[in-house]
Design a protein that fits this description.
Distance between the termini: 31 Å
Bound molecules: S-adenosylmethionine
Strand content: 15-25%
Shape: globular
Strand order of the largest sheet: 3-2-1-4-5-7-6
Order of helices and strands: HEHEHEHEHEHEE
CATH architecture: 3-Layer(aba) Sandwich
CATH topology: Rossmann fold
CATH class: Alpha Beta
Oligomer: single chain
Largest sheet: 7 strands, mixed
Number of strands: 7
Radius of gyration: 16 Å
CATH superfamily: Vaccinia Virus protein VP39
Helix content: 25-40%
């Protein structure tokens, strides 16, 4: 689905954390069903998932937030090269600053794929920015399977795993959201605002 040959920037990264195949299929299926006009993405990287969104929703405008300056430049170039000019904005900013600053904006669809340990902090802000009927899709919520593991989590991963558990607890018990959790690849949640 994603042709890496069409993207600049991969050569600068030892590890490329781009959307996986089944998750990409779920994303495009949801976009196809919901046909959002305004989409927000947290975590642009080189613009791969952004390109799927723009391709699947020819009438949408995408705002995508990325804190790394080089990634922002590469993503802009990639999305322009792919012919999506005028339909996207790559915001170079820490996600929490963006969410606190632009919280009066309303979106039909939000793809959350930024720093995993921060999801639970972003959640109330993202929920407030979601229209009724809107979708919040969060990627990598199982964090290499550690979130559902009963084993002792090593110190290096402990706070991310605990914060993702907190996020999962919040989204699955929020009466104002209808949430499904998918246990494939690195785990994905889909929450629809009632
Ligand atoms: C998993 S990657 C995004 C992949 C992209 N959605 C795709 O599938 O093509 C996560 C991105 O979030 C960015 N990021 C990490 N912390 C961030 C923060 N606090 N604010 C904004 N972006 C952040 C990273 O630089 C990285 O590019």
């Amino acid at each position: 689905m994603i042709d890496k040959e069409k993207f600049v920037g991969f050569e600068k990264h030892e590890y490329a954390p781009i959307i996986r195949k089944k998750t990409a299929q779920l994303l495009t299926q949801l976009l196809h069903e919901k046909k959002p006009q305004k989409v927000l993405e947290i975590g642009t990287f080189l613009g791969c998932s952004a390109s799927l969104i723009l391709q699947e929703c020819p009438n949408c405008f995408l705002k995508t937030v990325e804190k790394d300056v080089q990634n922002v430049a590469d993503a802009k170039q990639n999305l322009e090269n792919l012919g999506f000019g005028g339909r996207f904005e790559v915001v170079c900013c820490d996600a929490i600053e963006f969410l606190e600053r632009e919280n009066s904006e309303q979106y039909d669809f939000i793809f959350l794929d930024g720093p995993k340990g921060q999801y639970y902090k972003y959640y109330p802000l993202l929920k407030a920015m979601l229209k009724s009927g809107g979708v919040l899709m969060a990627d990598d919520i199982m964090y290499y399977g550690l979130v559902k593991s009963n084993e002792k989590i090593i110190h290096k991963h402990r706070s991310i795993v605990n914060n993702l558990r907190k996020f999962l607890q919040i989204i699955t018990t929020d009466a104002e959201m209808e949430t499904a959790v998918y246990d494939f690849e690195d785990g994905v949640s889909v929450s629809i605002k009632k």
